[in-house]
Design goal:
This protein has 8 helices and 14 strands. With 252 residues, the protein is an alpha/beta fold. The protein has a single domain, classed as Ribonuclease Z/Hydroxyacylglutathione hydrolase-like (Metallo-beta-lactamase, Chain A), CATH 3.60.15.10. The termini are close together. The protein binds zinc ion (2 copies).
């Protein structure tokens, strides 16, 4: 599977980092995980076609992970050369249908009704994965907001895990167990932690306990960006470490 970190930033506006968005091409489909501000334009910058999106998965409802769903769906209505016929599926943690209902209560006239749309709330523990022809998608609770979940995509080459926002959680370690690549948030320095987020030592602990092959850090707030994050993670994790930048491409 091919992975593109479209946005590696946070709620803090920065030229260097867009808000959260990851695109995964797997199972013959284009999957998007989170859609923060700037994500649609970031897809273009990364050489991806926003109209190619088949499924969108949200980790939680914070604006820096969700707001670009409106311009994306508006763009699909107006921007394609031919009217889209294939469905667009949107998934998020319960109560996702209620959350999406509020957004579409404001913008729905310009988002819905032009192509088939499925809106699916996910129970916090996955009874069964979302099945694609060449990939399976699992999820588990993350420790950030009450609704927060993290995702695992399993394909032929191994598993890719994206935490969304979280602090240390055993459920995230379990979800990430043995993954080829773990895209994990690393928001703040160890000497100024914030509840609901990870610091380098917490990210290293999850990666090490889960036994992943490679760690990629994302959702980096400016104070953490000033650190040598690769060295900090290296104190608690012996595998490969990368710090994401917008447009980073990964292969699993
Ligand atoms: Zn966030
Ligand atoms: Zn958040």
């Amino acid at each position: 599977m091919e992975i593109t970190v479209v946005g590696s930033g946070t709620a803090v506006p920065r030229l260097e980092r867009r808000q959260s968005c990851v695109v995964v091409e797997a199972g013959g489909e284009t999957l998007v995980f989170d859609l923060g501000s700037g994500a649609v334009r970031g897809m273009l910058r990364a050489g991806l076609d926003p109209f190619s999106v088949d499924r969108i998965f949200f980790t939680h409802f914070h604006p820096d992970h969700t707001v670009d769903v409106v311009p994306l769906m508006f763009a699909i209505k107006y921007g394609a050369e031919t009217q889209r016929a294939r469905p667009l599926a949107l998934y998020g943690p319960d109560p996702f249908e209620e959350f999406f209902g509020k957004i579409s209560g404001v913008w729905g006239e310009w988002m819905l009704g032009y192509y088939p749309t499925e809106v699916l709330g996910l129970a916090h523990t996955s009874p069964s994965p979302v099945e694609l022809p060449g990939a399976r998608i699992f999820w588990a609770p993350a420790a950030h907001r009450p609704e927060s979940i993290a995702y695992r995509v399993e394909g032929e080459g191994g598993a890719f895990v994206y935490t969304g926002d979280t602090e240390y959680a055993a459920s995230v370690v379990e979800l990430a167990r043995g993954a080829h690549t773990l895209l994990i948030e690393c928001s703040f320095p160890d000497d100024s932690p914030v509840a609901g987020h990870l610091t380098p030592s917490g990210a290293a602990r999850i990666a090490s306990e889960a036994g992943v092959g490679r760690v990629v850090l994302t959702h980096v707030y400016p104070p953490a960006d000033a650190l040598d994050l690769e060295a900090e993670i290296g104190r608690g994790f012996s595998g490969e470490v990368l710090v994401a930048e917008d447009g980073l491409k990964l292969h699993v």
